Amino acid sequence: MSRLLGIDLGTTSVKVAVFTDDGERIAAATRRHPTHRPRPGWAEQDPADWWRGLTGAVAELDAAGALRDLTAVGLCAQVNTQLVADDAGTPLHPAITWQDGRCAETAAGLTERLAAADRARVRGGLGTVDASHPAARAAWLRTHRPDVWRRTTRLLAPKDWILAQLTGRAVADPLSSIGLVGPDGDHPAWLDLLVPGLRGLLPALADPASVAGETTGAGGLPPGLPVAVGTMDAWSALLGGGIAAPGDAIDVAGTSEVVAVAATPGGGAPGIVTFPTWRGLHVHAGPTQAGGDALTWACSVLGGTVEELLGLAGTAGPGTVLFLPQLAGERAPLWDPHLRAHWLGAGFGTGRAELALAVLEGVAHAARHVLAALESAAGAPVPALAVCGGGANSDLWCQVKADVLDRPLRRTAERDAGVLGAAMLAGLAVGTGGSVAGLAARMVRVDREFTPDPRQRRRLDDAHGRYLEAQRALAPIFR
After folding, report:
1. Which residues contact 126 (CB under 8 A, 6 or more apart)?
2. Cα dihedral: 120, 125, 131, 137 (round 10)
3. Which residues contact 140 (CB under 8 A, 6 or more apart)?
4. Are the beta carbons of 158 and 213 closer than 8 angstroms?
5. What is the pLDDT of residues 134-161, one digit of tens each?
6. Structure confidence at residue 185 (pLDDT)
């Protein structure tokens, strides 16, 4: 039986785990890394923190004997985060993360340069260069950090940088290169119209489940192991969540919520990202800006740990307070960096418990907003969703989401579906995995299903209407 190592470089931590080829987890380790916010709207990370976390987690697995008899390595990582580096791969500036909004004004000017036909292809059909687009980050650095830009020879996503550290070769993939891939599967010429020379800074593209190279011994991994090209964390979580056929859907409950639906080819909707078809999977997806991050923020404001706030929320009566979780703008389906969060409807009877429950419901309303657009894109209703990620550890939050979405949620046994999906990519890359559907059937398990409570239907439908109305009414205040 083969052993596959998955690596998931997320927004808050790097996770590594070894799995058998039937999905059994042998060992796992996690290391957290910080996000730095030196100015309002900025969110940066230090790639050195990523590398320390990875090497520390690998050392833990090695000490447990889990690295023996490895077959292959797979990677996934956060996307819409970019770093610039020199020829040696040395980072020249902190990585600008997907949560960073400093480039909004720059991005608006770039969109205006695009012809209508090219604009329609940006970011999987979104039609705009937003603040997290690599071209916006490149243009901002070129203007505001000219000393850094003069030395830059590579513009890399976190996954591509980690791959280069492990194998000596940076390779990107079409699924996570959002807004950087033309209809021919290569980097489009219009990128150089936005930032001169941009295409030359980007790594070559290859299938996520192809072999990029072999480990060199860097990071504490045994040398000579095949390493898959890998992909974005959300796409990897789709695989680790068992998404394998049209109609399958998932809520990846991480730092942000990512809702995705597999469909027949074609379709699309405003505000939704449509990915290139890959190995028979045609996926529409929408990431929000804050999921678990909203609960973490609420802990800092209301006091207490995540576990304590979840316990408090469970004591609250039926929710009357609305929470809009747009703490740093919103991504799908609005793509508005100016939106901000609110608690609405508080009264003298409102306490910490009611505010905590409102946060859980508000994140679920944001997911419902995305799901409606996804069903429009796919042209069919979603009967149920898989759910994974750290947010899925809470039975209460899973039930709240099932009630708000009015869909059954099937929680995966492996909550860290991204790291499992990375291991699955490794299996596909070296030929031990078979087909995507066959691999999902063998490696992905469900541990519990949460069904909607019909007693909550009228209240939550009304709340969702007020949520959307409040969002529309308050948006102009912040522009």
Report:
1. 179, 271, 272, 273, 335
2. -80
3. 96, 102, 103, 106
4. no
5. 999 999 999 999 999 999 999 999 999 9
6. 86
Between CA 158 and CA 180 the distance in angstroms is 15
CATH class for the domain made up of 3-233:
alpha beta
C-alpha distances in Å from residue 373, one per residue of 272, 286, 288, 293, 364: 7, 9, 13, 23, 15
Phi-psi region of 23 (alpha: psi -120 to 50; beta: other; left: phi over 0): left
Farthest-apart Cα atoms in the chain, separation = 65
| Residue 125, pLDDT above cutoff 90 | no
Question: Would you say how long the chain is, in residues?
Answer: 479
Q: Where are the domains of the chain?
A: 3-233, 242-413+445-479
**What are the angstrom distances between the C-alpha of 72 and each of 185, 229, 240, 426?**
26, 11, 17, 6
Closest residue by Cα to residue 177 from 152, 147, 207, 153: 207
162 Cβ contact list (under 8 Å, min separation 6): 7, 9, 50, 51, 54, 75, 77
| pLDDT tens by residue, 174-186 | 999 988 988 888 9
* Candidates 3.30.420.40, 1.20.120.80, 3.40.710.10, 3.40.50.150; CATH matching 242-413+445-479: 3.30.420.40
- Tell me the three state secondary structure of residue 294: helix
Rounded to the nearest 10 degrees, the angle between the axes of helix 104-111 and helix 134-144 is: 110
Question: Which one, of 93, 92, 110, 108, lies nearest residue 42 by Cα?
Answer: 93
